[in-house]
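not sure who needs this but someone in the group chat was asking about FBA_2 domain-containing protein from Caenorhabditis tropicalis so here u go. i didnt clean anything up, its just raw.
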Amino acid sequence: MKTEIRRAIITSATLSMFKIFMNRFKRSIRELYLPERDPEYDENVYKCLNFNVNHYFYADTCPWFNLEFFLNIESIAITLKSIQLSDEDLNMFLRSWQKGKTNRQVRQVVLLTSSARDVKEILKGCGGELMDPRTTQLKFREVDGQEYKWIRGGIHIRRNDGRIAAILNNNRRYSTEDENVSDVEIEKYLEARDIWNSENSPDKWLESDFYIYVF
C-alpha cells in the first residue's frame, strides 16, 4: 500500500495546529510547501522534521527556520526564500555537506537570503574555486528528470566522495552546450574575480541569491 503523500501545502493554520503538524506528523511526503508564515510563528523553533520530505522542500519567509533544521532536510531539491541564516550558518552548511555529514541526497538548492551576504565568508575554508563561465560548463539534469541544462561558471567545491557543487548567484541555465555566455555574466565574473583573488581588497562580494547544483 502506498504511504507517501505526494504533495502537502500549508497555506493557513493556527499556531497550535502548525505545531502539531511539525512535531507529530509521521508520514513521508514527496513535496512540502510552507508559504510565508504569520508573525505569531516567530518565537517557535523547530530543530528537525519528524517525517521525510523525499523530493522537494519549499519554505518562504519562515522566521523560525534555523541552521539545525536546514541540516536535517534530506530532500533532493530545497528552496528557501527570505531566510535569515548568517554567513557563518551558510558556511557551516557547505562544510557539513563537504564532509558528507548532512544533506547528502540534495541535488539542487535555492537560497534567497533576507539581506546580502559576504560570498568569501560563506566559502571560507571550503577550498572553493571560481570558474570562468566562458570556459567551464557542467551538464545538469533537471530535478524533475525531464531535460538537461548547462551550468556555466560559478564557484566549485568538492565533497569527500568527489562530487562537485557549483554555486552560482543567478538562475541562468543554458539549453545547449554551445550557447554564448551573456556579456553581463562575463562582466560580473570579472568583477567578482578581482575580489575573490585579492586577500586585502576593500571591496566585498555581496550577494543574496545562491543557486547550488550538485554533480
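also The chain is about 20% helix and 30% strand. if thats useful
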